[in-house]
Amino acid sequence: MQIEPIQIALRASRLDGWLFFDHHRRDPLAYRILGLPEDLQPTRRWYYFIPADGEPCKLVHRIESGALDSVPGKKDLYSSWADQQQKLHSLLNGAKRIAMQYSANCAIPYVALVDAGTIELVRSIGVEIVTSADLVQEFEARWSESQFQLHLAAGKLVDKTLREAFDFVGERIRSKDALTEFEVQQFIRRKFSHYGLYSDHGPIVAVNANASDPHYEPTGERASHVQAGDVLLIDLWAKLSEPGAVYYDITWTGFCGDVVPNAVLKVFEVVRDARKKGSQFVIERIAQKASIAGFEVDDAVRGHIEKEGYGEYFFHRTGHSIGTEVHGTGANMDNLESHDERRIIPGSCFSIEPGVYLPEFGIRSEVNVYVGEGFARVTGEEQEQILHL
Q1: Which residue of 64, 74, 321, 365 has the lowest C-beta tally within 10 Å?
Q2: What pLDDT band is residue 2 in, cutting at 50, 70 and 90?
Q3: Residue 349 bridge partners (DSSP)
């Protein structure tokens, strides 16, 4: 954790400081941004204030006086609730406008981590609180060059796994051997293990109407058979089993047969073209050095699907930030579930994954887009045609 870059960002945002607060590790962002030890398990409240200028300050309970010893700054101790409130007032003395892990109306829930009571307490001191969402993106969601390379390496292995999974399905379909969604899922998980990939859950393997549930996952007790004539959607995400590795997250769709029904083909083409409009919009705007916000990408993608008459069947955001967690803390491509005005910054990555979910079947097409200094690119293979299995 480097104080100077944070203070430069605070001054650029005309903020007097950034207040971090936690109790029982409720705010994982604070621990990652500040670089606090993973084994730190506080049972009392602590505060850490980085001012726009000057030395950081920390306030910790007397029985956990060493809780923030790993970060720089002058330390003060409290014991009683009255003592805590008085010293918090001193900690923020002179500050008028500060950032905290707060989001107005919980518009960005990934950042809305400070409880309402603490927000009330800080406001009672006479301090205005603004969201730290842009700061979080700057100091937590931006990848290093090594992380970008880890993403590309994981992407090659995930793409390979996907091809092998569809080949596995095709062989079983042609041999007319029974096959379930769960068996395909477990095939993928075994491949992940073999290739040194890690995934916290999933993948999604879904046929027909199951594919119209964007978060459907088969289990040993709940899984449909994969048969000739089925639409098959596979959504898989993984990262290399290395420290600091970041995720790669894609979705492809196949059809179990030689001739794809026109209705399925039409929806696939609409979804594919919407995805391509989104990635091309980002690539062109970044090349032009134009500022671009997450909601604008959602508008570009959603606008195409709405124009084609499927707007009501696309009921989730266009994409999410990607990081060490598959759903990261940077800007989301969203003007549906929230109005994400955060600008897309260099060193960040996100998915573009439109979908159309009809009662009979669902189709989603997903790629990852990385934004560097003056350029943006899709980081892996792109599905152009529906797969014939």
Answers
A1: 74
A2: confident
A3: 370
Confidence (pTM): 0.93
3-140 has which fold? Creatine Amidinohydrolase; Chain A, domain 1 (3.40.350)
pLDDT at 301: 98
Whether 306 contacts 315, CB under 8 Å: no
Rounded-to-integer distance, Cα 82 and Cα 324, Å: 39
Helix H segments across the chain? 3-12, 28-34, 81-91, 116-124, 133-136, 145-175, 181-194, 262-287, 294-307
* 142-388 CATH, one of 3.90.230.10, 3.10.290.10, 3.40.50.2000, 3.40.50.300: 3.90.230.10
**Alpha-carbon span 135 to 37, nearest angstrom:** 21
| pLDDT for the residue numbered 360 | 98
Q: Quick one: which of 5, 19, 24 has its CA closest to 102?
A: 19
Own/partner pairs, 3-12, CB within 8 angstroms, 24+ separation = 3/50, 3/56, 3/72, 5/139, 6/50, 6/135, 6/139, 7/50, 7/51, 7/52, 7/53, 9/135, 9/138, 9/139, 10/50, 10/51, 10/52, 10/99, 10/135, 11/52, 11/53
CB 253 within 8 A of CB 365: yes
